[in-house]
Structures are given as structure tokens and as C-alpha cells.
């Protein structure tokens, strides 16, 4: 047999809905136990029946109880039957007896049977005042109405101290009742229960089961041995269903199953011989308890036991016929939930009023009837509420299975908040419970200082309640733990007040470890949620302090942008070297604000910064850029940045940085020498002496040569080329550029000092100097390497050059002849003069033809070109009047321009006056008159001029 640790008495809910708990003086010694076993969750909860019950029991004592599906029937010691609703409110009172009511039975519809020590049995109507009273002159202890009492001749069974089991049936005629004795002579009848066709009763000998349908006894179950007389420990009978009878007597429990001959248990012997061949009884469960049984009831596959705990000295004694307890020392009664094998599921001690003075027989246990089919199997139908009534003389406690909310409350009571929350989330309780359970769970986590876990649970618990969210935001702020909650604060559905968001952001400014989170939060939260000004005010005092960090600066920059303070934001972005600063400048047109940020921008991205500075050099002049780069204290290669800027500026505008060209020479010499020559050739704003000094110091020979040439010191430059570069080709090019014959002499003179240079000079002078001249100047006996080969090459090159010249002359003569022939042919061609009508038609055709010009072939275009050369217009090219005017001569030139003679002579006179000073004494080579006496086309002459 397994068992659990005895549970302390539970809190009871009184009839007014409040909770009460009694002090347990008898459990003072429990604290001395070493280590309590883990407490199991109870299966039942308890509530003291209120309503009219306290008033009734204040002047009387409860003696018997029965529960119907409509009411609670309470019998008292003064013989009154009280009809109560399920809240304990009295709806009817029946003065049924004059002494203690020992038992109550009910029929499903309206009839109530009761028996009393006054020797009477009364059948009352639940709804009317009708009563039937039967006198037996001996105390009656048990009564059972036929389940079909109203339809089955109002039959009932009763018994008492007389020891007879009486069955009374109403006569079908003449009135009155037929009385039949089922059994007698076996001692008083102590308990009786009727279910379907089976009637069970208990007397001094044991329990008997009778089949009322066949009027045959089915079985006899002996009274357990060693228990006191039934007057001390009453037997308790309860039908779990139509075929299972549960018997609790003293410390013994037996479960009897009613079988038929066609049924049976495999391998199980009959423990009791059946008196009927049709039905018999199998004891399917049996066990002993360590307590006295004051009541028993089914609970599904389990049993509810009302346990009376005897004193320790009574446990060591055999049961006797004397009372087991002394007055005023009894222990609390207990409810045990056990299996058919006596495995204890839960144990609850009940704080019954006045329990110290009660005996085992003073308690009664009743349960609400099973609804629906009689074969309910000890289970309540869906929607029914299983109720158990524990009755003592002055108190009634109602027990019922714990529901989900009770389960959740028990979990919370024992600190298992996470399990409680999980139960609510699974939909096991009211939705409103989520707020309560969640709030308690959050409080528990806060007390345990598990702030991160509490914050993580907030979205699940607080959900869409803005007020709840704001309350917890301020609570976390008070605890200085907002940093763990901020990632979970909602920004929509629900949206909180702007104050809540501002408090959260300000809280993150106080600690450097929160600055990264602050920056992330500002970037992720929409700016419309809060006002940036309070947060800016919280950060600005830290700008010059040691607590200022880069994330905090960036967060402040973001807030400045939100607050439309773009220039302040730009300053921080530039200081932080943020790559997006360039887009920020363009987006908000902040070019005026970058005067003091040149160095930061150059360090961040020199290429983009230079492009920006040059593009807006009218706003940021070059001298500002140069000065900032020269005098910066930042850790950067300021000279290289300056070189990049000046180089890009020079390529854009060669005059924009003219004041710094001397500096630029030095920068080119240090970082990009290949650009020196192009720069020297292009710029006119550098000092030659300074440049020469720079190049000499860095041994840049070609640049020295260029500067010497610019300075007019060509001989020294030539000497430098020959002696240092030893590049005769460059020397020749240099001399050629100078256009100085003396320099050629100097070149030859210096080359004669080096035989190798003489040979190289011979190779590169073809077309510039006569090689024979150089050869004649060579001293006798001077050995020139590869002289023969070089002379052969000179002769070959000379022949090639001569051949090319002759060929060019031949081509030139041929072209001249061809052009003269063409000119002659053109001159012989007549010129067609158009009339005004033809000109008008030609204009129209020209307009139409212009739309199709893209479709004409190359041949058509050529034909049109030839025609235009042999056709002139119908108007004078000077006065634009028609040519066909009477008595006026017309002059037409080969270029197809036509003039009135008077117009042409006037135009020539004006041209001659402009050119007289320069041409008055000139004549053509063939002795013809000068240009003044020649007739020329005014348009062509003007175009040629």
C-alpha cells in the first residue's frame, strides 16, 4: 500500500465567499520532522455551507443528510427536516419527527423518506405538505425508497432496532399498505441502500444483498472481525453503479460486484456463495485502513473516505465495545482519496467546528447523485458538479473536485508561477486569469531579481494593454532596470504615451554600458513616438565629460536629426567619421556647415571629400582646406591628403590653387614624381629657383633639365642631360625645342668628349644636322664604337628620306595637274540662271524633298550637288532684287553667285577702301593689275578673308 504525507487542513471558503482557516493546536509537533515530503496537489477543495445552515445548527444539531439533484435534505436531532438549496438557503421546513432523524432517502421526483428514533417513518412531498407517517414504536435506523417509488406502488424499505427488514407497498385497492418482512432475527438494521432492483442492508451479522425483482437473496457478506459494535462504528453502504456496492465498516473496505452466471472474472473465485443461481457477488476489492471510516463515496475509479483518526493509545488496543475516544481530545477528521488497492492519492485534514468533541459516528458523508443513466459508473455527466457533503453536528463542509483555476491558484501558492502561466496559456482558465497570474509571476521574478526573465515575459503577459505596459515601464525605471525591458517595449499595438518612451530613452543615457542599446533603440523606434528634446537635454551635459562614448555621440546625432538640428548632427557624424556623412550633407544641403570639418571628412574618405570640396570651392575656398590640413593635430598623413586635394584641384582648375603651386611641386616630388613634368609644363605659378632646389635635393634630373631650360640656362641643361642622363635622344629633342644653332654646336662639342656619344649622335641627327658635318669635326684617331654600322645606317636613312621626298614631289605635281584640269572643265561649263517662277517652284520642291532626304541614295545626293554648281539663283546676292530688271547688266561668277553690275561695283568699292593701304603697290606675278582693278565675287572674297 502506497501513501502520501498527510496534508495540513486546507483553507475553507465560508458561505459568504470569504476564506477562513482555523488554528491547529494538535499539529505543533510537526515542525520537529526532519524533512517534509514534497506536497502533492489536492484533488478536492472545500467550502463551508452557508446560507441558513449556521442559523439552523446554532440551535440544533445535524443528524442525517441526503442530496438530490434539486435540493439538500438535512435532518436534525429535534426531528426537523430542512429543505435547502445548494447554497444552504432553506426553502422549506418539515416537522417530520419528534426525535433524532437517523436516515433520509429520496426518490428522483418529489418524495422524501425519513426515519427517526421516535419510531416513525415519514414519507414527505418535496413540493406539497402531504405526508405519510408510519408508527413502529421502536427506533428506526434506516430507510430506502424504491428508485421508482411513485410508479411502483410507492414501495419502500425500512429497518431499525427491531431487527426486521420491512418492505411496504401501497395496496392497489382499499387504501393502506401491505407489509412484508424480508429478514429478521439478525440484530438491528443499521444502514440500507436501494439501487435499481437491488436492496442492500447491514445488521449486526453483516451485509446482505437482496434482488427485489425476483425476491431472492443474492449474497451475504460477513461483518468484519474485530470491529466494535455498529452502535459505535456504523457501517456505510454506497452503490457506485447498478452492479458495484462499496462497503465501509470500521477499518475495513470491501467492494462487491454483482455478477450473473454468464459473467465472471477470469481466474477469480467467488468469495461469497450466492443464494441465487442467477446473480452472485464477487469481492473485487478489499483492504484495511489505519483509521475509522465515518463515510465513503465513489470518485470515478477512486474512493472518497471520511476518516476518523483514533488516538494513539486506542490504536494499540483491540477494538472493544466501549467508546474509543475520550471527550474533547479527538483529532480532525480527514478526507482520503484512495484507489481500490488503498493507494492514497491525497489526504486533507478538515477544520470542522468542534471536532475535538465528536466521535466517528457523529460524522456523515453524502454525495450528489449521478445524473443520466443509472449505469454512470461512478462518473458525473458533463456539466454536473460533483459535490460531497461532510456533516458534523454543528458544521457542514462541501467538497468538490478542484478545477483549473484552483490548480492555477495552488501553483501560485507554492511558487510555481511558470507552470501556472503555462496552464493559463493553454486555455485551461479564464482569460482574465492571465493578467492576474502574469502580474504575480512578474512580481515574483522582480523579488527574485530576475529582471531579464521578467522583461522577456512582459509581451506575453501584458499583451495589448497600454496602461499595464506603462505601469511596468515606470516600475522598471524605478528599479533602474529599464535596459532589460526596452527591447520588448511595443511601438504599436499598443502604442504607449510619449512620456513612457522618453523615460526609457533617458534611462539608457546614464550608464555607458547602455549606450549601444540606446543607439539601437533610437534607430529602430519611429521618431513620432517621443519628443527628442528631453533625451537631448539628458545627453548634452555629458559631451565634455569622460562618460561620453561614441555610441552616445551617434545617438545624440540621431536625435539632433530627429529634432531638425542638422548642423549639430553633422558635427557629430563628422567627428565619429561616419561614412554616411557625405549623403547627409547632400540630403540636407549642409555645404556651408563643413568649413571646420575638412580634416575629418578627408580622413573618412579622401576621394569623396576632395570631390565635395572642389565642387563647392566657392563656399570652401582652397586656402581654408590647405590651412586646416597643414595645422591639424589629428593623427593622419596630412601631407598626402594635401597632395591629393591640390592635385585634384589642379586638374579641375589650374589657376584655383596657384598660391600653392610651390608647395604642390614638393608634394609631387614626394608622392607622385611622374606628374612633375606635366605640372611644370602647364603651370606658370611656381618659382623656378624653388623648383630647381626641390629637384636638386631629390635628384630629379629630368625635372632639373626642364627648369634649367625655363630659366634660360640651356647649356647647363644640355650638360645635365648628357652627363647625368646620358640620353642623346632626349638631348637632341631638347636642342630641337630650343631652336638655337649655338646649342647644336654645344651638343656636338660635349658629345665629342665621349666616343660613344658621338655614335649615338650620328644616329639621331638625321633630318636635323648634316652627318658629314659631324664626321668632319671628329678628331683623327678617335675610336667610335660601331662606327661602320652607324654610317651604313645613316646612309640608308638618308637614301630612304631622299626617296620619300621624291615620291611626295611626284604626288604633289600629279594632284596639281588634276586640279587644274578639273578647274578648267568647271570654268568652261555654262551657268543656268533661274527665273522667279522656277525659284518659287524650286523652293516648294526643296521643302518636300527635305522630308525624304534621309531615303535618298548617295548617287542622288551627288547628282544634286553637281546641279547646284551649274545653276544660280534668280536674285542678286547683294540687293536680293530679281536679276531680270530692265537695263541693268548682270555678272555671274563661276561660283554661281550672280549680281547686278551696279551692286557689285558698289560692293567692290567698299572692299577696296578697306584694303587700299595694304595692296596699293602690289601686282600679280604675271604683271596683271592689282586686286583693286579686278572684278571679284563679294561673297566668296568675304568668306576667304
Descriptive account of the structure:
- By secondary structure, this protein is an alpha+beta fold.
- Helices cover about 40% and strands about 20% of the residues.
- It is built from 32 helices and 34 strands.
- The strands form 10 sheets. The protein has a 4-stranded antiparallel β-sheet, covered by helices on one side.
- A hairpin with a 5-residue loop joins strand 33 and strand 34.
- The radius of gyration is 64 Å and the shape is elongated.
- The chain starts with 11 loop residues before the first strand and ends with a helix.
- The N terminus is likely disordered.
Q: Mind summarizing the main beta sheet?
A: 4 strands, antiparallel
Structural class: alpha+beta
State the end-to-end distance. Answer: 135 Å
Instruction: Please give the share of residues in helix.
Output: 25-40%
Unreliable stretches, pLDDT < 50, 5 or more residues? 1-5, 16-35, 265-276, 316-326, 372-378, 856-869, 918-933
How many helices? The count is: 32
What's the average pLDDT? 81
Q: In percent terms, what proportion of residues is strand?
A: 15-25%
Rg from Cα: 64 Å
What is the β-strand count? 34
The shape is: elongated
Strand adjacency order, main sheet: 3-30-29-28
